[in-house]
Design goal:
Helix content is about 55%, strand content about 5%. By secondary structure, it is mainly alpha-helical. A hairpin with a 2-residue loop joins strand 5 and strand 6. The longest helix has 27 residues. Bound molecules: acetyl coenzyme *A. The site of acetyl coenzyme *A (ACO) has 18 residues, from helix 17.
């Protein structure tokens, strides 16, 4: 027998089923609440609201656990490549050799953009933010690939998954090339996913290019740790848009827009700007910690805090280690990394941060690695989007495959004016 939760609601005792997940997380299923009582629940920012049941990612913010399809993030980051993890997220199981090489091949055959799509880039201003370009071009995929828009046709969904996985790095690299005034490099299908991306970003026609294997390895790890994070803002956006049966390209484009925000994926860009600001201001870390604690100031330490993690973000641990290794290997003495380390130490020991359980998050160190790789700040969130793509796809697919799928349509409590008499314009 399923467990029930009793709620006293305006003098009536009501019972609602308790839903229990495989990791013993519990929720009260209030789907019958309005029907039974006429009441709804209010939960600004959805802090207590589960929007769905999902079998993709488990995270426990109190203990700092993150697993994709049951596999700890630490194991995946150490042993897999990004395409393998993408397969795991989207299809639920780690692929065997044949499945993986088929998946890789099918992605490779879609890496080029339609030539007319390349012309879009001429229309964007040179200083356009690459996230704006990314979301626009992904949205435009719905116009070029009209043969794969039906969310209810599994074959069409499969082809749009491959098109997105294959073309996102090309679209992303071209937005960088555009901002640099460099020619677009065509994809090279004999290269790995990450090598190909770096080749499209940095190669020029006048000289040979070979991606540094250290960078390839670091990029692979970064894409893996960003690949999914259950019902975060952008993933919930993808699900929300997809719930209206909008096609996959349109849904992912919306997710990219959500990710762009500085309170979400845009934080990695904001972290480096903040570190630069501290450096230019003389490197006084304490001053910035004090500013972050001052409620009148409004300044926040970018890269600290998380809605769910009230412990060290396990992804931040992995990235920090990789960051140390990369900087040592490259013998780079990045002053921003030194400031980041001091900031982390001060904040971790400061009562304000300790009390509120504000730990460095995934964005805190990723920016430093991207900098070391020569990736411009404006591209940081674009790389996050490349990593998050398989997670978005997995959630969109899971939602469509669920027999209980419904359009997402929250309610509200209206608190505006009561009915008023219309006043004609000349009397206002
Ligand atoms: N610096 C200083 N104080 C902070 C910070 C911070 N970075 N983050 C939270 N706080 C404080 C808040 O002022 C609040 O204090 P109070 O209780 O005295 O009012 C308390 O900690 C709780 O913060 P909330 O804003 O309620 O936490 P919420 O869960 O809504 O926000 C968020 C989480 C948006 C990540 C927040 O911590 C933040 O703005 N961090 C900086 C931006 C950032 O790094 N974002 C990336 C998140 S990871 C990702 O999206 C991939």
């Amino acid at each position: 027998m399923s467990k029930m939760a009793k709620i006293d609601c305006e003098g009536h005792e009501l019972e609602f089923p308790v839903v229990e997940g495989t990791e013993n997380e519990k929720a009260i299923d209030i789907s019958a609440l309005r029907k039974q009582t006429g009441l709804i629940t209010i939960d600004e920012g959805y802090v207590n609201t589960g929007s769905t049941q999902s079998g993709i990612t488990f995270l426990n913010g109190e203990e700092g656990i993150l697993r994709y399809r049951g596999y700890p993030i630490e194991d995946l980051a150490k042993n897999c490549d990004f395409v393998e993890v993408a397969y795991l997220l989207i299809y639920g199981e780690l692929p065997n050799q044949t499945e993986l090489s088929d998946f890789r091949d099918s992605i490779r055959h879609h890496t080029m953009l339609h030539e007319d799509m390349r012309l879009f880039y001429n229309g964007f201003p040179r200083d356009a933010h690459p996230m704006a370009i990314l979301s626009s071009v992904v949205s435009a995929m719905s116009t070029f690939y009209q043969d794969s828009l039906d969310p209810h046709d599994p074959e069409q969904v499969e082809i749009s998954i491959r098109r997105l996985m294959a073309k996102l790095p090309t679209i992303a690299a071209y937005s960088h090339n555009k901002s640099e005034g460099q020619p677009f490099a065509y994809p090279q299908n004999d290269l790995s996913y990450c090598e190909n991306f770096l080749q499209m970003m940095f190669s020029v026609p006048c000289e040979p290019y070979k991606a540094d294997p250290t960078f390839v390895e670091a990029l692979n790890m970064l894409l893996i740790v960003h690949a999914d994070h259950e019902q975060n803002c952008s993933t919930s956006t993808v699900r929300m848009v997809g719930s209206a049966d909008s096609n996959l390209f349109a849904s992912i484009s919306a997710g990219i827009c959500a990710l762009w925000g500085p309170l979400h994926g845009g934080a990695n860009e904001a972290v480096v700007s903040m570190l630069q600001q501290i450096q230019e201001d003389g490197g006084d870390v304490d001053k910035y910690v004090a500013m972050a604690k001052d409620k009148e100031n409004g300044f926040r330490l970018m890269g600290f805090g998380h809605r769910v993690y009230k412990n060290f973000d396990p992804r931040a641990k992995i990235i920090k280690k990789a960051c140390d290794q990369l900087l040592n290997k490259l013998d780079l003495d990045d002053p921003l990394f030194e400031i980041a380390q001091r900031l982390e130490k001060v904040a971790l020991e400061d009562e304000y941060f300790v009390k509120r359980k504000l730990y460095p998050n995934v964005d805190f160190y990723s920016g430093v690695i991207y900098r070391a790789m020569g990736i411009p700040v404006g591209m940081f969130t674009v790389l996050f989007a490349m990593g998050r793509l398989p997670g978005w796809i997995a959630h969109w697919k899971e939602m469509h495959e669920s027999p209980s799928k419904r359009i997402c349509r929250p309610r509200q409590i209206y608190n505006g004016p009561n009915v008023r008499e219309f006043v004609s314009i000349e009397n206002r």
